[in-house]
Amino acid sequence: MTSVDVEILINEEIKDQLHTSNLHGIYLPDCLVRPLMEDYTSSLDPSANFRLWTVLIEKEDGYRICYNEDESIFGLGIKAGDGQLVCLGYYGTFLETLKAM
What we know:
- There is one protein chain.
- The chain has helices at 3-14, 28-31, 94-100, and strands spanning 32-42, 49-57, 63-68, 73-79, 85-92.
- The protein is an alpha+beta fold.
- The chain has one domain.
- The protein has a 5-stranded mixed barrel with strand order 1-2-3-4-5.
- Strand 4 (73-79) and strand 5 (85-92) form a beta hairpin.
- It starts with a helix and ends with a helix.
């Protein structure tokens, strides 16, 4: 899977909902990023490391939406104080994850 594949997946889901927001005031055109494969650790087991696509960044120290291509599922992440990305859990589709934020 490439970053373009992930972008297409998200664009197909959000189609005419590009201006959807959530309780955090996320405005998708400002927060969606070109999918970037990054290293994350698990919030439940810091020794568990995996590669996920970062697809949305609320702000540098805010929430992120990540995509697990092996499981075909989106989840929430954060950047810890030490700079490590942490996956908080999976929520389903991109829009379900956005609403869970």
